[in-house]
């Protein structure tokens, strides 16, 4: 993670001083690798520290922070470019990444602790044994008294808790063999492709239909971004009501509301309510997936959180790559309404496979 943040600072600086096309390509590739490293390791560190039943709120908070940066970044970059020139946004971001690098250097490596359920019967019985008064003749012992009695203490109170397979090495291939991981990756590709697919095509629709200028398009996009700040609440709901339930409900909401965004209307601002539902539903799709994948690793004994979140980042990147390409082809062939209907059909077709087939 330290190398990732340092690489992010250096590659962003290189962006500002690049003078040729290939220098920009190299800077962009380096920036993507560095950002992916810090993002993946950061999620893995959180999963190491927090127990699975609290990961929903934690990952929701992370996604909300990501949305905050996604929201203020373009506006801040535009102001810096307008008043201080081309290199100013990159210099500012590289300085910010350098301070983040210094902050990461102060973060201690998380200790691998066993997340014990304090409500379990074994722990409750142990507390009972500790608090129970001992007989008078057993209160005082001399050096001849054995510290450990014969036989396990809990032999008459059920079997001890089942140990985890912490010695088994978890590989990327072994994770991909579990259907829960595959279904989460499929849902991630779907969610990121739909969200990234509407980003380049919605401005075209707004300009062609409503003759909206750049500032108006930016305000309309806020309708998608603002609801994603509710990601911590979405994570809390997924911890309480089930991650599959919340994610599947988000998929259904996106499928239902996508065509409403493209319906003809005479008033521009009528598009705002369906866009807000779209933004919230997109958060409902992706937020529960992170803790669900982390819990799978926890059940396998832990130690591979970075690996599973690397798979998540790969799936998210695939969706971000495929979504705009498919959306661009669809809007040219069938228009914006046809594109939204195609997204709906894709979600409805893939949802049973992703959520109801074998997700245990």
Describe the structure.
InterPro entries: MFS, MFS_dom, MFS_trans_sf, MFS_Vesicular_Transporter, Sugar_transporter_CS. It is found in: Membrane. It is a single chain. This protein has 360 residues and is an all-alpha fold. The protein has a single domain, classed as Growth Hormone, Chain: A (Up-down Bundle), CATH 1.20.1250. It contains 14 helices and no strands. About 14% of the residues have low confidence.
> Mean pLDDT across all residues, rounded?
79
Q: How many domain modules?
A: 1
The Cα radius of gyration reads 25 Å
The CATH architecture assignment turns out to be Up-down Bundle
Strand content: under 5%
What is the H/E string?
Answer: HHHHHHHHHHHHHH
Point out poorly predicted stretches. Answer: 113-132, 134-164
- Number of DSSP-assigned strands: 0
**What overall form do the CA principal axes indicate?**
globular
Count of alpha and pi helical runs: 14
Question: CATH H level: which superfamily?
Answer: MFS general substrate transporter like domains
Instruction: Tell me the structural class.
Output: mainly alpha
Straight-line N-to-C gap: 32 Å
Helix content: over 70%
The major pleated sheet works out as: none
Query: Which fold name is given in CATH as the topology?
Result: Growth Hormone, Chain: A
What is the CATH top level name?
Mainly Alpha
Protein name: Major facilitator superfamily domain-containing protein
Keywords: Membrane, Transmembrane, Transmembrane helix, Transport
Subcellular location: Membrane
Main location: membrane
